[in-house]
Amino acid sequence: MLERREFLQRAAVAAALLGVPLPRVEKNFCQEPPPLPSPDLYLKNEDAYWARLRPQWLLAKDRSDLNCGSVGCTPLPVLHAMIDNILHNEEFVDPYYPWFGYEENPPLRELRDSLSAFLNVKRDDLALVRNATEANNTIGNGLPMKPGDEVLITDQEHPGGRCVWDQRVVRDGIKLNEITLPKPPASAAQIVDLFEKAIAPRTRIIAFSHITTITGVILPAKEICAMARSKGVLTHVDGAHAIGQVPLDIQDIGCDFYGSSPHKWLLAPKGTGFLYVREELQPQIYVNIASGSWKDYSLKAYRFSNLGTSNLSIMVGLKSAIDFYRTIGPDRIYRRIHQLASRVRDRVAAYGRFPMLNASADPFYAGMVTFGAPEATVSRIFQECDKRKIRVSGGADHVRVSTHIFTQPSEIDAFFEAMDAGLRSA
User: Fold this and answer.
1) Peptide bond connecting 330 to the previous residue in cis, omega within 30 degrees of 0
2) Which helix (H) or strand (E) holds 70?
3) Digit-coded pLDDT (tens) for 256-270
4) How many domains does the chain have?
């Protein structure tokens, strides 16, 4: 393989390939990423450990990203793995074609082995796709349904999880039944009870988010799936926010289908996703995109990965993201994400005037905290955040703050300075 330093120092080629000025290429990619901080530092001073880890990202020093819930920030080791693979693929020295979207090749097999271990599922039950929306559409379009069959969803689904069912209402005459999730929920049993009471004689499948995009509430996925199975109802979980944000064991959840977007909380390259399909259900699902292997059932779940020529290098980056997470430690990462979100929650609660929409109790949130506020107040908070180059999310009547391991306590402080300024301007 051509050395990265040698290749990228060829100015014209680097500029043409990456579309960025050569000084930036040399700064960010001609040197190895800084070493990870010592585990001993974590034991001595956690904040110092996470501050020392921050240079693993290309995040601008004058900006704060508190919206990992929309899209994550990919660390340097993952970027390097992806770029190395881009360069290597263009040499065409491997016996396999350098693509994703057709037959499995060694890098894709290595990724599926790693991902299956990370998720605790069989590799043959995993398809590689490009995002959670594609995973959701594979099931939503592929599941045979008859007019009058019913899908049960919540009022907090992302369009990428809901709209495929909306289309089938129009196209196939199915019915969509929507439950309203409490803001915030009082207990897991309350949520499961809402689903159970909404099941009708022709309910075929429950499609719900593991962690909702609107409020960031963690739904009791395992309990919902167990209840549904006891009633002969299928379950599809939109896990776009789960992988990398919370410990994830799909086998333990017990769902029939599960899709996700690792580009959010796992910090993988954009355009990576996966779909889990329970083995006995795989032959029943039609592919969303038909290619040469659309009915090759020997491929198991990988049949749903035949999407046409796509970028192999980002999938190599996904494997690197899993490695990055494992090196730091998933439990340690979850603890930090949740610890920082708890700081946000506690400081919002101290105002005494902004209702929590997801965090009534510890199990209901991980790295996202959402609170409600009047529309004018939300607008002023967003304006003050924009002035300070702080990226947050939300809507007309709520603000959603996402924290991750690259988030520094000073950035949380800066958000609340913006919030205070917005309240003073009222």
Assistant:
1) no
2) none
3) 999 999 999 999 999
4) 2
